Amino acid sequence: MKLHDPQPAPGSHRAPRRLGRGHGSGRGKTAGRGTKGQKSRAGGGIPAWFEGGQTPLHVRTPKLHGFKNRFRVEYAVLNLGRLTDAAAGTLITPDVLRHDQLLRDQKTRPMPVKILGTGDAPHGVTIHAHAFTRSALEKLSQAGSTAQLISWPDGAPIDFEPEAKPEPKSERKASSKRAAKPAPDDTEEDEPAEEAPGADDQPPSVEAPGAEEEAEASRSGESESES
């Protein structure tokens, strides 16, 4: 094998089209572009997204505003006002609500039940549901009824504590300020203030040895001179 023996695979390299090389080539004169028009001009052409003047697809398509949560839980809601006529001691479950046609049609798929707080609460009943609003829980407790939270889809009872109402911002700021301010400590006793050294507190002066003898000799000398 020599250097001129390797050849590309048949069909992998095609000869380019020869345009404008006479009638015999099949693409002479207009070179396959036709006569006149926008597409026959040099540098002319139509964008791929142009649709002849009608509203293009990217304008006709509705735009995405926000998003739709894939993990949202859709409930079949029911107001407390529709259960006002229930007798005391009645056990209300999702199956009872579906049997009495108090919930919307769920033939396509069953849905969890959520109790809303609109209307008056029934007295002395027990309600099993998959979710309760805070207002519904307050009204049921005031009416002496019981709200039991159950799981979805098995319907097992769940122990839960009602959520407390959030404090207003003004009260939260006041409580934070009170917590930040240190309380005075009554256990600490006031320490006595140090007194400034007075004249009485000065240390006694110490006389040098032999000072008294020198003073007596000077007095005796003065007396002799006077005489």
Can you tell me the CATH architecture of the domain at 76-158? Ribosomal Protein L15, Chain: K, domain 2
CATH topology of the domain at 76-158: Ribosomal Protein L15, Chain: K, domain 2
Reported for the largest beta sheet, the result is: 4 strands, mixed
Strand content: 5-15%
Counting DSSP H or I runs of 4 or more residues, the number of helices is 5
What class do helices, strands and sheet pairing give?
alpha/beta
Report the uncertain regions: none
Can you tell me the CATH class of the domain at 76-158?
Answer: Alpha Beta
CA-CA gap between termini? 157 Å
Our Rg estimate from Cα atoms comes to 52 Å
What's the SSE pattern?
HEEHEEEHEEHH
